[in-house]
Amino acid sequence: MDGQTVAGSGSRAAGKNDPLYQAGVGDSGRPGQVVLQWTVTPVNRLEKAEGDQQQTDPDQDFPNLLRARAFVEEQPMPRAAVTFTVVSGGASFNGATQAKVVADVNGYATAPVLTAGQAAGPVRVVAASGNAQTEFLLTIASATQYEVEPGGPPDVGLVPGGAAVGYPGVVVEKTGAAPLGEQEVTVELPAGKGLQWGSAGQPDYQLSVLDGGVYPGTLSPDGLTLTFKGVNLDVPEGLMKVLYVCVSAAPEAAAGYTALTFTVGGKASDSTPVLIGTPVVGPPFSASPGGPPEDLLEPAGAVRYPGVKLTKVDDGPVSPLTVTVRLPQDTQLLWGKPGAPDHQLTVHDLQTGTNTVYTGTLSDDGQSLTFTNVDPRLPAPGAESLMWVGVSAAADAAPAYTSLVFSLDDQECASTPVKVEPAPVFVVEPGGPPDVTLVQGEPAPGYPGVRVRNTSSSTLHADMAVTVALPAGSGLSFVAEAGADYQLTVNSPVSGEVQYTGNLSDDQQSLTFDKVRLDVTAGETVELWVAVRAAQSSPAGPAELTFTVNSSTSSSTPIDIVAPAG
User: Fold this and answer.
1) Are 127 and 202 contained in the same domain?
2) Which residues pair with 85 in a beta bridge?
3) Which residue has the higher pLDDT, 145 or 131?
4) Considering its fold, how many domains does the chain have in total?
5) What is the C-alpha separation between 254 and 281, in angstroms, rounded?
6) Which residue of 101, 388, 395, 449 lies most exposed, with the fewest beta carbons within 10 A?
7) CB 210 within 8 A of CB 122
8) Using CA of residue 172, residue 177, residue 183, residue 188, what is the dihedral sign?
9) CA-closest candidate to residue 311, choices 280, 341, 334, 332
10) Are 326 and 403 part of one and the same domain?
11) Which residue segment(s) compose the domain that 17 sits in?
């Protein structure tokens, strides 16, 4: 914006000789007149700065304010007038669908708090200044409360090119009082694994709901995804529905473990595991996945030991074996770990508890190890042994659910499952308000809590599930400080203190908070705490609560229960 202020002279207005002067301004005939003239440079670009792609529950505020930045060419435009308008979806700025604000000196325009309405669904907010605008997309989540996890028919074993089909699925458990109603369900095959809907000659595009009917699906153009509309999932609170589909393995299917992905009303879960390449049985022994349990690998983490189990099935002799072990493709698994490769096979005799170690020959591509003259340690029918190798995940390994393949002479068998999963980006530890002293029978509460520390190199900005459990036999109880509501307080350097309302369990021993927003910069912490009190009958002495944040668990700050004075 360009402008100037020039005093008039007598009854003559100033500025007539100014190149910015416009006809029709001034010459009122009154002495002492001042004429202000300016030209306004319009905003030609608005950019989203904060608040896009948020989600909240009905009747709740969106956690972050919407911010847009105004520019003229490449320069931020201070004091620009910006209007935020809710163009679709049920949300408002203090009851209004529009809010007009002025940008700060750096060109940032911040809208007031946006509050979700009662109806779930998408929300579109447009920020505009002149002809420049930008759009924010937000979501009001369904108020229904439910969890989706693997379950249903037993784990699935399929033979590549075989006639057998399997039924991987999930269970949907209702965890709240609101009805689930009809939900959209999508089921996706894992890419590159060779699974198919139904069988080769008889495709099956249906979703079965145990005790709830069958739903026809719509196949995606790439053939990997089925979508089912209007799937009725209503059950009483605490009960569940079982959903499954029918699949088989094509002749080219890759051996190993995999899973389908079910998405129910926006919540996704792996199906029950699918093993392609069933345990191979051939005289005189059988082979199946076995050894140490399912191995969880973290990128650049510790070595783990996937393997197979051999069982002697008849009286015939077992000759020394040639064993080849192959890494799964495109998973960035390593033999041993960087700087310390491990090219060994361990055979564990389950009868004697002894180990025999063999050194293998690495293939040119580094993907397989071959061991010759391997004694499988199977002296008599019923004898069992284990074989395993050591692997780790490279620092850049992508998440995967897979297995190695063991070739025993001319027989093949998948190893125990290997799951590659990033290391936790946070830790939970005791902390928060100071250590808590509770007097038996006194109504005054204390506030035991934990700290969540961001251990990653970037800002943690996520919704977490939090559960708080009382110690058994302590006589402690949660205190409802907001009327009938039990609350969790989150104290963050970013957003200050924010309260979340939880669900008290039927036995009143735990509180569950489904969606707690944690904003933590790298290396920093947030504090979480709840209110508790001690009953007259509470045993004197130390106690502590248990906090679980997603899957990470920690005890709270210590609680000291004491008798009343005197």
Assistant:
1) no
2) 98, 126
3) 131
4) 5
5) 19
6) 395
7) no
8) negative
9) 280
10) yes
11) 1-37
Unique residue bearing structure tokens 């491990």: 342
b/e sequence 509-536, b meaning 16+ C-beta within 10 Å: bbbbbbbbbbbbeeebbbbbbbbbbbee
CA distance 62 to 67: 13
Q: Give 328's DSSP letter.
A: P
pLDDT, tens digit, for every residue of 454-502? 887 767 777 889 999 999 999 999 999 878 889 999 998 877 899 999 9
Burial class (CB in 10 A: 0-12, 13-18, 19+), 104: middle
* 454 and 438 in a common domain: yes
Do 294 and 403 belong together in one domain? yes
Q: CATH number for the domain including 414?
A: 2.60.40.740
Query: 113 near 54, Cβ under 8 Å?
Result: no
Q: What is the DSSP letter of 53?
A: T
Q: Is 187 left (phi over 0), alpha (psi -120 to 50) or beta?
A: beta
Domain match, 108 and 213 both = no
Query: Cα(277)–Cα(156) distance, rounded to whole angstroms?
Result: 10
Closest CA to 289 of 301, 281, 297, 279: 279
Q: What whole-number distance in Å separates Cα of residue 49 and Cα of residue 71? A: 12
The answer, as to whether pTM is greater than 0.85, is: no
Any idea how long the chain is? 566
Quote the CA–CA distance of 189 and 10 in Å, as a whole number: 86
Q: From the centroid of its chain, how far is CA 434? A: 31
Last residue of a domain, one of 235, 254, 276: 276
Domain boundary among 371, 389, 420: 420
Mean pLDDT of 219-224: 94
Angle, CA of 171, 462 and 456, to the nearest 5°:
115
Give 77-116 pLDDT, tens digit per residue. Answer: 999 999 999 999 889 999 999 999 999 999 999 999 999 9
CATH number at residue 502: 2.60.40.10
Statement to judge: residues 22 and 62 lie in one domain: no
Which residues, 6+ apart, have CB-to-CB distance to 310 below 8 Å? Answer: 285, 286, 287, 376, 378, 384, 385, 386, 387, 408
Cβ 59 vs Cβ 114: under 8 Å: no
Same-domain pairing of 359 and 381: yes
115 and 153 together in one domain: no
CB atoms within 10 A of CB 435: 14
Instruction: Show Cβ contacts of residue 96 under 8 Å, excluding neighbours closer than 6 positions.
Output: none
Asked whether the beta carbons of 217 and 206 are under 8 A apart, the reply is: yes
Cα–Cα dist 310/349, whole Å: 10
- Backbone φ and ψ for 305, nearest 5 degrees, come out as -135, 75
Scan for tokens 């735990």, then name that residue. Answer: 510
**Whether 140 contacts 56, CB under 8 Å:** yes
